[in-house]
Design brief:
alpha/beta, 250 residues
Length: 250
C-alpha cells in the first residue's frame, strides 16, 4: 500500500494546513482526528484509501503545527475545513470524525452553507451537552477494552493545550444538541461499548438528535473502536459509504 502523501496547503492568508492524502479515485472523505493526534487515525486512512480520495488534516496545534490566534474555538476550526474543501474543489464529501474530531465534523456539517458534505460519520464523538452525561477526559492514554490490544499513546501536553483552546473549559457546546435537528444528510454513529470517555448512552442520545442517523454499538471496544475492533467497525462503515443503487420499477 502506498503511504499517504503529506503536503501543506495554504487555505487562506495566514493559515496553512498540513494534510495527509491517500487514494485518487472514488468519493472524497475528510477524516478528522481526535486528541491522540494524526497517527491515531492511520488505520482509517489505510482502510479507506483503496476506494476513496482521503484527506486527513492535522488540527493546527498538534504535531508542532502552529495554531493561529484566530483558531480559538471549534466553529473557527470547522470554517477552516470548509475553506479547505473549497480550496480542493471537493463536493459530495463524507466527513468522519473521531472523539474531538467528531465535534469538529458535526460543526463542519452544521456550517456547510454550500452543501459540499453529503454524509457524516461520528466515532465516539464529543460536542453537545447531553443531559445526565459527562465527558471524562483521560489524563493519559485511553484504557483498552477488556481483552483488547493496548492503545496507542494519549494526547501530548501540546495537543491537550490546543484541544482546550478549541473546546473551552467545559469541552462541550451547550447550544449544539438542538441544532442537530437541522442536519439533513445521513449520519452513522459508531460507538465502543466499553468507552469510558463518552459512554454508549451519550452516543445514543447524540445519534437520536439527528433526523437521519443510525447507531452502531461495537462490542469489546473502547474509545478508539476502529483500532480495537477494526473489522467490526469497517463493515457498517463500508456499507454506509457505498452508494445505493436507485430502485428500479417493474
Amino acid at each position: 500500500m502506498t503511504a499517504p502523501l503529506k503536503r501543506t496547503v495554504p487555505v487562506r492568508p495566514g493559515l496553512d494546513l498540513d494534510l495527509r492524502e491517500a487514494g485518487t479515485s472514488g468519493s472524497p472523505v475528510l477524516v478528522l482526528h481526535g486528541g491522540p493526534g494524526p497517527s491515531s487515525i492511520t488505520p482509517l486512512i489505510d482502510h479507506l484509501a483503496p476506494d476513496h480520495r482521503v484527506v486527513a488534516p492535522t488540527h493546527p496545534g498538534w504535531e508542532d503545527t502552529v495554531r493561529p490566534d484566530v483558531l480559538d474555538c471549534v466553529p473557527a476550526l470547522a470554517a477552516a475545513y470548509l475553506d479547505l474543501l473549497g480550496h480542493l474543489g471537493l463536493n459530495d464529501v463524507t466527513v468522519i470524525g473521531t472523539s474531538f474530531g467528531g465535534w469538529v465534523a458535526t460543526q463542519t456539517v452544521l456550517d456547510d452553507r454550500e452543501g459540499r458534505i453529503s454524509k457524516l460519520v461520528l466515532m465516539d464523538a464529543i460536542g453537545p451537552v447531553i443531559p445526565g452525561q459527562q465527558v471524562t477526559v483521560p489524563a493519559g492514554p485511553p484504557a483498552p477494552a477488556a481483552g483488547g490490544p493496548a492503545p496507542q499513546g494519549g494526547p501530548s501536553a501540546q495537543s491537550m493545550a490546543a484541544m482546550h483552546a478549541y473546546a473551552g473549559p467545559t469541552m462541550a457546546d451547550a447550544d449544539m444538541l438542538p441544532r442537530l435537528s437541522t442536519v439533513t444528510c445521513p449520519v452513522l454513529v459508531i460507538w465502543g461499548a466499553d468507552d469510558t470517555v463518552v459512554t454508549p448512552d451519550f452516543g445514543r442520545a447524540y445519534a437520536a438528535a439527528f433526523p437521519h442517523a443510525r447507531f452502531e454499538l461495537i462490542p469489546d471496544a473502547g474509545h478508539l473502536p476502529f483500532r480495537e475492533k477494526p473489522e467490526t467497525v469497517f463493515a457498517p462503515l463500508d456499507s454506509f459509504l457505498t452508494p445505493r443503487a436507485p430502485a428500479t420499477s417493474h
